[in-house]
C-alpha cells in the first residue's frame, strides 16, 4: 500500500485513508467486494493494493495485471468511463478469461480513478447475484463520486504511492444489535436439532455446535480453525470447496449434499454475508440425486483456487502476441502465483539457447548465460530439453551437486527448469527462480509441468509473430520516405503509426517533395486494406506522384495522371489521396483531393478549422476523372495538418465531431514545435494508444516567406 505520507489537512496515512475510502464505498453501494487498483508507472501494470470482502487467495490472478489485459478495470481506465457487467452471461461474452476464473453469478462495475493530471488506476465493485441487473444513474453518480474522492487522496499525496506485493485486506464493519451476546446465541444454537457452523471469509471454522461436531464425526477442538475440506477427508474434493467459493462470491445461499462414510448423507446449507458464512448441517434420509457421489480421498488433490489459477493462466497465455507480451505475462502473473522472483526465458536457435526475456536478474548475468550450447554443463537447461523432463531444485546444494557453478552465477536459492517442447520439437526453456530455498509441492510440480506446454506454444507462436512483424515493418519503412527534405521557410514533421498488433503492412503513406527553392509538394494518402498488395500499390502511387510532380505537372494533372496509371494497373484496391502544392514565393497553396479526408488549416492569429477542399473521385475508379484545384492564401505562421482517416474515424464516435475537436486542439497549441504538436493531436484522438487503423499525420508550417516577409 502507499506509504505513511501525511495528508494535507489530516492526520492519517495515505494507505489508511485509501482503505477507509474503499470500505466506505463497499458499504455505501451494498457491494460484496471492492478492489482498489493503482497503476505502477515503471512497468506499466495495474496492482491490486487493497481489497474488501473476499480473501486474498481469491484475487491472486488479479493482483498484477498488464494495462492491456482484457478485463473490465483496464477498459474503464482506457475509456475513462464506468464499465458495468450485469451478470455471468455478459461476463462470459465480453470477458471470457475473467469469467473462466470466476464462474459464479455476480454483477460488477469498474470505475476509473481519474485525477487532476493523470489516471491513478481503477476501482472494482462486485454485487450479489440477486442485485438488479442495471446500474441506475443515482448509483453511477455514487460510484463516480467515490472514485473522485479516492483520486483526490492520491492527487494530494506528497509522494507517489508505494505499491505492495500483496494487497491489504480491509475489513467491512458489520453492525450487531447491542443486546445480542455470544453466549445467548450459542445457547440458542445448541438447543436446535440440526448442526451449525460458522466460517470466516477465508473458509476457516470459527464456531461449531456439539450437534454439528457429532454429525461431522470429529470433535470441536479438531475442527475449530480448520477448513472443512482440510480437516474432514470425505470433504476433500474440489467440488465441495467450490460450493464455498460460489456462496462467497455470489453472496447467495448454496445447498449441497455429501456422503459421510460409510453411509450417512449430510445436507449443508450455506448462508453468506459480508462477515462470513453460516452453515446448517442436517442429516438426510437419502442422498440427493443432484449431489455428487462421495469420492475416495484423492491421493493428491490440488486446491480449487489452484485449478482456477491454472485456467486463468492458460487463458492468458493464449492471448499473448509478442515475445515481450509473454515475458511480461510470466513475470507479472505466473511468478507471483508460484511465489517466484526470477525468470529466464530462452529459445532454441541454431543449437543454442538464446535468451529472449528475463526478470529479476542483472543484465551482466544474462550476458554470461546467453547463447549457451544445448549440451552445456553450466546449467540444467540443456539437459531438461534433451530429456523433456522438468527439473526442480529446492536449495543451492541440490543444484550444485550436478552443476557446481550454476548457483554462484545466478545468486538464487531454488529453481524450476521447465522444458518447452511442442510435438517432440524443443522450442526453449523457462526457468523460474527463488531468492530463498523453496520446496516444490506435488501440485506445484504438476501445474508447472502443465503450464510448460502452454508456454512452449505461446513462445513458438510469439517468435513467429515477431519475425513476421519485423519483416512487415521493414517493408513499411522501405516504402515510406527515410527523411523529409528541408526547405527554407517551411517546417515539416510527420508520424506514422501502424494499426494495433496487426502483422499486415498498412497502406497509409505521405511524402514531401522539394520542387525548387521556392516551391514544394506535400502528399498524403490511404490505400484500401492492410496487405502486401496494398503496400505494393502504395509504393506505385507514391512513385507516380513523385514523378509527375517533379516533372512540373500542374496540381490537378498530378492526380489525374496517377489515376490513369491505377486504372491501367486494373487494381481492385481504391486509393484516397490529398496533394498540396506550396508556392512560398507566390504566397499560396493549391489543394487537390481524391476522396481524402479534408486537411486542417490554421492561419496566424486566426482560429483553426477544416479546409473545404472540393474533392474528386478516389484514384482508380474512373479513367478520365477530373480533379478540381482549391487555392488558399499562404501567410506566415500558417499551419497545415494533413492526416489519414485512422486519426478521426474511431469506433463509436462521430468523425465530424472528432475532426472539429481536432481543429480545436490545433488552434490551442503552440505550433512552433511540430513534433510535440503531433503528440498532442494523437493523444487527443487516441488517449489510450489503441487504434484499429493505421494513422499517418503530416504537419507543415510556414515560418517565413522567401521575400523575407515575417
Brief sketch in words of this structure:
The protein is α+β, with helices and mostly antiparallel strands and 710 residues long. The protein has 21 helices and 29 strands. The protein has 4 domains: 156 residues, 2-Layer Sandwich (Beta-Lactamase), CATH 3.30.450.40; 98 residues, Beta-Lactamase; 165 residues, Beta-Lactamase, CATH 3.30.450; 222 residues, Phosphatase 2c, domain 1.
Number of helices: 21
Query: What's the CATH first level of the largest domain?
Result: Alpha Beta
CATH architecture field of the largest domain = 4-Layer Sandwich
Briefly note the CATH topology name of the largest domain.
Answer: Phosphatase 2c, domain 1
Explain how this protein is built.
The chain has 4 domains: 14-169, Beta-Lactamase (2-Layer Sandwich); 188-285, PAS domain (Beta-Lactamase, 2-Layer Sandwich), CATH 3.30.450; 308-472, 2-Layer Sandwich (Beta-Lactamase), CATH 3.30.450; 481-702, Phosphatase 2c, domain 1 (4-Layer Sandwich), CATH 3.60.40.10. It is an alpha+beta fold and 710 residues long. The strands form 5 sheets. Strands 1, 2, 3, 4, 5, 6 and 7 form a 7-stranded mixed β-sheet that branches. It has a 6-stranded antiparallel β-sheet with strand order 15-14-13-18-17-16, with helices on both faces.
List keywords for this structure.
25% strand; Beta-Lactamase; disordered C terminus; 35% helix; 710 residues; alpha+beta
Secondary structure elements and their pairing?
Elements: H1 14-29, E1 33-40, E2 45-52, E3 64-66, H2 72-79, E4 83-85, H3 88-94, H4 96-101, E5 107-114, E6 119-127, H5 137-156, E7 168-169, H6 182-190, E8 195-199, E9 205-208, H7 210-216, H8 220-223, H9 228-231, H10 238-250, E10 254-260, E11 264-272, E12 277-283, H11 304-318, H12 323-337, E13 342-349, E14 352-359, H13 363-369, E15 372-373, H14 381-387, E16 391-393, H15 396-402, H16 406-410, E17 414-422, E18 425-434, H17 442-479, E19 490-497, E20 508-514, E21 519-527, H18 532-550, H19 555-569, E22 575-583, E23 588-594, E24 600-602, E25 609-610, E26 615-616, E27 630-633, E28 639-643, H20 655-667, H21 674-685, E29 695-702
Parallel strand pairs: 2-7, 23-26
Antiparallel strand pairs: 1-2, 1-6, 2-3, 4-5, 5-6, 8-9, 8-12, 10-11, 11-12, 13-14, 13-18, 14-15, 16-17, 17-18, 19-29, 20-21, 21-22, 22-23, 23-27, 24-25, 24-28, 28-29
Helix pairs in contact: 1-5, 11-12, 11-17, 18-19, 20-21
Amino acid at each position: 500500500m502507499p506509504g505513511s505520507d501525511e495528508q494535507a489537512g489530516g492526520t492519517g496515512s495515505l494507505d489508511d485513508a485509501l482503505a477507509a475510502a474503499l470500505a466506505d464505498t463497499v458499504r455505501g453501494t451494498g457491494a460484496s467486494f471492492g478492489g482498489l487498483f493503482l497503476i505502477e508507472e515503471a512497468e506499466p501494470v495495474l496492482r491490486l493494493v487493497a481489497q474488501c470482502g473476499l480473501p486474498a487467495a481469491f484475487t491472486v490472478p488479479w493482483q498484477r495485471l498488464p494495462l492491456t489485459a482484457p478485463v473490465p478495470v483496464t477498459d474503464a481506465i482506457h475509456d475513462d468511463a464506468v464499465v458495468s457487467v450485469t451478470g455471468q452471461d455478459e461476463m462470459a461474452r465480453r470477458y471470457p478469461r475473467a469469467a473462466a476464473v470466476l464462474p459464479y453469478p455476480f454483477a460488477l462495475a469498474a470505475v476509473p480513478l481519474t485525477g487532476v493530471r493523470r489516471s491513478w488506476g481503477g476501482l472494482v465493485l462486485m454485487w450479489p447475484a440477486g442485485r438488479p441487473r442495471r446500474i441506475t444513474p443515482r448509483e453511477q453518480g455514487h460510484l463516480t463520486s467515490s472514485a473522485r474522492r479516492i483520486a483526490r487522496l492520491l492527487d494530494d499525496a506528497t509522494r507517489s504511492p508505494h505499491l505492495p506485493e500483496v494487497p491489504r485486506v480491509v475489513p467491512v464493519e458489520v453492525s450487531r444489535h447491542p443486546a445480542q451476546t455470544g453466549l445467548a446465541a450459542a445457547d440458542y444454537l445448541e438447543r436446535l436439532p440440526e448442526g451449525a457452523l460458522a466460517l470466516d471469509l477465508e473458509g476457516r471454522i470459527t464456531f461449531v455446535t456439539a450437534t454439528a461436531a457429532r454429525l461431522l464425526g470429529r470433535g470441536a477442538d479438531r475442527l475449530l480453525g480448520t477448513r472443512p475440506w482440510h480437516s474432514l477427508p470425505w470433504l476433500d474434493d474440489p467440488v465441495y470447496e467450490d460450493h464455498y467459493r460460489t456462496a462467497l462470491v455470489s453472496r447467495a445461499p448454496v445447498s449441497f449434499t455429501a456422503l459421510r462414510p460409510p453411509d450417512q448423507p449430510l445436507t449443508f446449507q450455506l448462508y453468506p454475508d459480508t462477515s462470513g458464512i453460516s452453515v446448517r448441517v442436517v442429516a438426510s434420509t437419502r442422498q440427493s440425486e443432484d449431489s455428487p457421489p462421495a469420492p475416495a480421498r484423492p491421493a493428491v488433490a490440488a486446491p480449487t483456487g489452484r485449478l482456477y489459477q491454472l485456467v486463468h493462466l492458460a487463458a492468458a497465455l493464449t492471448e499473448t502476441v509478442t515475445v515481450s507480451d509473454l515475458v511480461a505475462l510470466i513475470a507479472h502473473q505466473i511468478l507471483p502465483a508460484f511465489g517466484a522472483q526470477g525468470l529466464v526465458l530462452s529459445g532454441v536457435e541454431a543449437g543454442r539457447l538464446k535468451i529472449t526475456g528475463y526478470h529479476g536478474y542483472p543484465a551482466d548475468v544474462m550476458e554470461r548465460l546467453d547463447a549457451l550450447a544445448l549440451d552445456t554443463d553450466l546449467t540444467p537447461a540443456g539437459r531438461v530439453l534433451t530429456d523433456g523432463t522438468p527439473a526442480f531444485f529446492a536449495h543451492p546444494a541440490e543444484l550444485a551437486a550436478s552443476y557446481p557453478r550454476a548457483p554462484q552465477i545466478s545468486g538464487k536459492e531454488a529453481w524450476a527448469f521447465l522444458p518447452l517442447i511442442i510435438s517432440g520439437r524443443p522450442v526453449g526453456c523457462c526457468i523460474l527462480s527463488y531468492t530463498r530455498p523453496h520446496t516444490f509441492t506435488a501440485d506445484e510440480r504438476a501445474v508447472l509441468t502443465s503450464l510448460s506446454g502452454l508456454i512452449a506454444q505461446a513462445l513458438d507462436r510469439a517468435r513467429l509473430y515477431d519475425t513476421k512483424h519485423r519483416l512487415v515493418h521493414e517493408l513499411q519503412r522501405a516504402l515510406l520516405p527515410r527523411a523529409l527534405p528541408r526547405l527554407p521557410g517551411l517546417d515539416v514533421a510527420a508520424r506514422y503509426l501502424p494499426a494495433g498488433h496487426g502483422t499486415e503492412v498498412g497502406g497509409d503513406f505521405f511524402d514531401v517533395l522539394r520542387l525548387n527553392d521556392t516551391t514544394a509538394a506535400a502528399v498524403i494518402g490511404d490505400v484500401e486494406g492492410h496487405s502486401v498488395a496494398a503496400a505494393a500499390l502504395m509504393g506505385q502511387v507514391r512513385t507516380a506522384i513523385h514523378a509527375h510532380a517533379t516533372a512540373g505537372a500542374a496540381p490537378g494533372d498530378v492526380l489525374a495522371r496517377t489515376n490513369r496509371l491505377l486504372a491501367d494497373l486494373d487494381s481492385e484496391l481504391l486509393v484516397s489521396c490529398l496533394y498540396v502544392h506550396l508556392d512560398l514565393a507566390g504566397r499560396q497553396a493549391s489543394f487537390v483531393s481524391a476522396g481524402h479526408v479534408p486537411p486542417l488549416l490554421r492561419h496566424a492569429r486566426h482560429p483553426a478549422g477544416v479546409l473545404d477542399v472540393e474533392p474528386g473521385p478516389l484514384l482508380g475508379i474512373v479513367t478520365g476523372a477530373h480533379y478540381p484545384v482549391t487555392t488558399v492564401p499562404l501567410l506566415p505562421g500558417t499551419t497545415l495538418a494533413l492526416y489519414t482517416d485512422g486519426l478521426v474515424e474511431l469506433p463509436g464516435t462521430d468523425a465530424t465531431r472528432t475532426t472539429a475537436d481536432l481543429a480545436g486542439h490545433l488552434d490551442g497549441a503552440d505550433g512552433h514545435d511540430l513534433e510535440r504538436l503531433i503528440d498532442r493531436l494523437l493523444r487527443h484522438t487516441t488517449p489510450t494508444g489503441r487504434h484499429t487503423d493505421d494513422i499517418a499525420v503530416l504537419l507543415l508550417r510556414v515560418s517565413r516567406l522567401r521575400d523575407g516577409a515575417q
